[in-house]
Amino acid sequence: MNTSLIEIRLKRITFEAERISSFDFVSADDRSLPGFHPGAHIDLHLQPGMVRSYSLANAAAADPAYYRVAVQREPDGRGGSRWAHDKLRVGDTLWATAPQNDFPLDECASCAIFFVGGIGITPVLPMIRRLDAIGREWRLMYASRSHKETAFTEELRRIDAGRGRVCHFHDSEPGQRLDISATVATLAQTTHVYCCGPTRMIDDFLAATQARNPATVHYERFSATQQAAMEGGFDVVLHKSGARLRVEPGKTILDVLLDNDVTVPYSCCNGVCGSCRTGIIDGQADHRDDFLSDEEKQANQSIMVCCSGARSKTLVLDL
């Protein structure tokens, strides 16, 4: 087992909303868990070949007593959420990465507004707790399908404490749809805006904030906006060993690397987390991810091997 992984034990499962449960993990050997900042996630190794990223929902701390993740059961997903809901039991042990953060909170902003859809509330909970702790202004615009599908309502009520900072929007109720564009239009340019939710919400958010200072705009996607490159028909050359691997149709670069016992970090397999970022020595990538910026894609110096392919017949990777 990779020694960089942490062995954790499931201590508690809590029903949070319809199809959503939270899972609290403690250290399996009573050692201290690595600390984390708001917005961080861990990668859970649910079973061989099944690694999933989950945001941490408990209050950020330098020495946390536990890690809490929330999982929404997706019947038509890739299987990770179904496995977690159907197979995980209190007392089970798993391996996980130390917390990583691709969605950090800017604590210097005097005011922050959060636009959240469904399970996207997870990374935002420690953010608003932190902003409360340091005396910053914030508001939460929380959209979900219905009241019964809204997670962490009691916790949010306690955090809000009657201040009116938490606004709920339920798509199933007339006149309750969240209008991101109208809300953003009322905000001062110095206000930092955050979004975590499904693809459509992120797209609406980016359209509404395109005229704002990019330094004040923060978001995290659940999944990529493009299909993974699986057309195949090219070779991958490993620069360090010289090995040449054929990527056949129906396979991603990551599939081929793993099939040939090439060790490479990976997590989401959707091109959004950045875990599998790999350097390019030569060749032209077909970028399908939502992690690299347009400038980084144009520079063609790295590739997300989980979802991107090649426009050239050969792609030489820094592996």
Report on this model:
There is one protein chain. This protein is an alpha/beta fold. The chain has helices spanning 80-87, 121-133, 153-160, 180-185, 199-208, 253-259, 294-299, and strands at 6-17, 20-27, 41-47, 50-55, 67-72, 93-96, 111-117, 137-144, 166-170, 192-197, 217-221, 234-238, 244-247, 277-282, 285-286, 302-304, 309-310, 314-317. It starts with 5 loop residues before the first strand and ends with a strand.
Feature tags:
319 residues, Elongation Factor Tu (Ef-tu), domain 3, Rossmann fold, 3 domains, 6-stranded antiparallel β-sheet, 5-stranded parallel β-sheet, 18 strands
Explain the layout of strands and helices:
Layout: E1 6-17, E2 20-27, E3 41-47, E4 50-55, E5 67-72, H1 80-87, E6 93-96, E7 111-117, H2 121-133, E8 137-144, H3 153-160, E9 166-170, H4 180-185, E10 192-197, H5 199-208, E11 217-221, E12 234-238, E13 244-247, H6 253-259, E14 277-282, E15 285-286, H7 294-299, E16 302-304, E17 309-310, E18 314-317
Parallel strand pairs: 7-8, 7-10, 8-9, 10-11, 12-18
Antiparallel strand pairs: 1-2, 1-6, 2-5, 3-4, 3-6, 12-13, 14-16, 14-18, 15-17
Organism: Cupriavidus basilensis
Domain FAD-binding FR-type: 3-106
Pfam families: Fer2 (PF00111), NAD_binding_1 (PF00175)
